Amino acid sequence: MLCNKRENVEIPAIHFSKCCAKTDKNNNPGMTVEQHLLIVSEVCSILGRQRPKSLYRLILFAIYAAALHDIGKISPGFQLKYFREMIAELVPELASISINHFCTDHSHTGACALWAQQGDPFSDPPVVAQIAAMHHGSIRKDPLPTDIGEIFGGSHWSLQRCLLIEKMEKQFSSQRLESFSPTERDCMAGMVTISDWIGSDEEFFPPDGRFNNESIRKIAESAIKNCGLEAPVIKQSMSFRDIFDFMPFDIQEQMGAIATVPGVYILEAPMGMGKTEAALYAAYQLMASGCNTGLFFGLPTRLTSDRIHERVQCFIEKICTDAIIPKLAHGTAWLREFKKGAEEMAPGNSWFSPRKRALLHPFVVGTIDQALMAVLRVKHHFVRTFALAGKVVILDEVHSYDGYTGTLLDELVHRLSELHCSVIILSATLTAERRAAFFKRAILSSTSAYPLITGESNYRTSKPPETKIYSVSIQDLTGTGVAELAISRARKKDCVLCIANTVSQAQDWYDKVLTEMHSCEFEVGLLHSKFPGFRRAKIEEYWLNILGKNGKRPQGCILIATQVVEQSVDIDVDFLITELAPTDMLLQRMGRQWRHAQTKRACTYPETVIVSGDPGNASDLESLYEILGVSNCKVYAPWVLCQTRFIWEKYHEIRLPDDIRTLLEDTYTWHPESASTLMKDLREAFETMSSALKRKAQGMLSGVTLMPTSDDLEGCATRYSDLPTTQVLLVKNISDNTEKSASLELANCEKVAVNTFQHDFHTMVELHRNLISIATYLVAKTGAALRTPKYLEKYFYEQTPVLEWDEPGGEISIDGHETDFHYSHQKGLFRTKAFPSSDNNCVSYSSEWEEIDVFDKSRFDW
User: Fold this and answer.
1) pLDDT tens readout for residues 324-351
2) Can you tell me the distance from the alpha carbon of 95 to that of 589, in angstroms, rounded to the nearest whole number?
């Protein structure tokens, strides 16, 4: 319902041609609102040329909306706020009125003006009004006054807005009454917002406005080029071999044959079949034909994004006429850019440094979170929508997502389809139900073939790779038993990989192996997320060098790790020991075995040992958790673990890829008629949690009139977790501490000087390389405050306590409080059995698992 204070109030106005939009460097009135609108619409027009023709209808309307987006600056509230002295000269009686009398939010004012001019006051605002309201990040929820209301200046100011609207409409004609979906509206709002950002950049468009209208186009073209937003020129008629230097496999040829027009395509194939190259070549064909412009390659983790980035860079170098470096987009990508030096940090790339802009680069590799924020209620989500529109979007390792993120992913795929994107989903492990969820309408493919490429209207099968037979056994082993088995195989010159479900279990296995083996008998390593960045990178590099392709393979070794090696990490081992995990995760872990055909091995076939007790022996839930492992039931749903255990115990050999479909479907198919009461209880809890996660995800989706609920931060709402984490800084020594400044010796032995007055980029990089993420409540139990010291406030946006590390003994203290944390470069951050909490009571180690929802696996920082 519209409301207003008073209507038809006689407040004097100035002509729209004299209303200013910007101040110059001396804070004097600069370019006019009309000039600014012409600039932004011209930028928008040039941006539109960089997008495929399939978006032409949206581009035309976006140019029209850009020409009207700041119409609300023609109002007494805005003009008095910034140009009171000018108003005093032109209309003295207006300058005498308090600014509190008027609305100063020009987005709000503009939306009301456009609604009054073009819309029905009893229905939703027209799209052009919504875009005007959105372009600063969100839509206000308070009732909209009428355009002639007193807070907007009354009828005289309304007339001036109307005159400029009519002038712009004559120059930028558009189908006013054309309807658009919310997704299309978001795309256009994003395009207008980016055009406004560029058009407001004083390096390109001096705010004094001293340039003629004829030069606007040339300046706009130069600005877009300098921002790196020019569409790259794609070489034509390149073969698969031209790009990748080898002949395509059958599945790569099939993918190129089916993905010829924008749409959703799902490529299911086992590990090591070249899915990445298949997707990239399909992307090349779609871009070379003009169906799509640009590429986003999304992966589940920062580590996998970093690995793929280098491969995508080689691909881009082959297909583009000019040298273009694909943008790496995730929370710590700037660290890699700094490491690479001047080329990545040059002005052409620095424009993309703000997190909301990264996806605008023509070619982007990043975490899936970066794309998911396009569908979430975060500020400027629509900028990300426009950034992805018309691109080829490749989503890798899709099987790894839970119900919450999976719901968001389904919505993302559906919205991208509306915007004529080509979405290519890569997976080794999808069920038929999960596959179908990515399509809005029923798909034709009901085949059980594998490998399989599924489109919206057709599908193609491919010749599977040679069957590989894995020996599989389930053994109920203690930590010492795991160590003894791993050592015995390493002594036979096997390269052994042990994968635990939690960091604490991996560290325990590591301790047991060191205890049971002879000193320096062979190489033993530990890899998980509780190392600071500098140390984890060094460990990863070392093991990739010896177990990766063409690595200097040792005569026996043991690598103990968590899920960080589960996917997209090209290590090749002979023997695998893994804790029980869902079938799709087990198959991924087995994908680390016998990856490279030319590798010389001491063993004659791959063997996998799954560590698990028998849930069939459980009499109640408590005993079931003990049998499966209490910590395992915190990471994965107990029902899925039981289903997996019951299915896999039937096999002594697994034939891959032949058995993948059967294993997956059997694991997730529910047969209540033959289930025990205990399994029915587990299934009910699983369904309840799955439904709750889906509802949570749906509640976070962006809508037409919903306000943002959180900032635009990676992981803000893309992964469900009710266990907050805190990043902590690991230091060896603090000296010269005056509260506002200090000298720090970091865990990597780097020495830095920090203060509260300024910061330099090199110091910031070193500080971030020494961060570790841990559960917030564990820090709180030490009694220490969750605070960033004043001398570090310029370096961290989030609360970042300092962990002081006594290197000789490994002890950790926080803010003068003793803790049960220890650290070593070999084990990472770990905990002892008990420590005094803030109330001086002794807390047992098992308390780590209290009040953690057993069905959420995504909360752990692996």
Assistant:
1) 888 888 766 656 554 444 333 343 445 6
2) 71
By C-alpha distance, which of 476, 578, 558, 563 is closest to 516? 558
CA dist 746 and 25 (Å) reads 42
Provide the strand spans (E) within 627-671.
Answer: 653-656
* pLDDT per residue as tens digits for the range 135-190: 876 665 555 667 888 888 899 999 999 999 999 988 887 656 578 999 999 999 99
Residue 483 burial by Cβ neighbours in a 10 Å radius (0-12, 13-18, 19+): buried
Q: What percent of the chain is modeled with pLDDT above 90?
A: 52
> Do residues 365 and 308 lie in contact, with contact meaning Cβ atoms separated by under 8 Å?
yes
Tokens (6 digits) for 344 = 């990545």
Q: Cβ distance 611 to 499 under 8 Å?
A: no
Question: CA 361 to CA 628: how far, in whole Å?
Answer: 46
Look at residue 281 and give its three-state secondary structure: helix
Residue listed under structure tokens 């389904």: 410
Degrees to nearest 5, angle at CA 778 with 772 and 780? 110
HSE of 593, CA atoms in CB hemisphere, 13 A: 29
Q: How far apart are CA 554 and CA 548, in angstroms?
A: 12
Write the burial class of residue 136 (CB in 10 Å: 0-12 exposed, 13-18 middle, 19+ buried).
middle
Cα distances (angstroms) measured from residue 584 to each of 307, 398, 407, 691: 22, 11, 18, 21
CA distances 316 to 252, 253, 326, 386, 836, Å, are 18, 20, 7, 22, 55
| Beta bridge mates, 725 | 775
β-partners of residue 307 are none
Q: Which of the 8 DSSP states describes residue 29?
A: B
Q: What is the separation, in whole angstroms, between the first and last Cα of the chain?
A: 50
> What is the rounded CA–CA span in Å between residue 455 and residue 416?
15
Give the CA distances from residue 67 to residues 131, 151, 156, in Å, rounded to whole numbers and listed in that order: 11, 24, 21
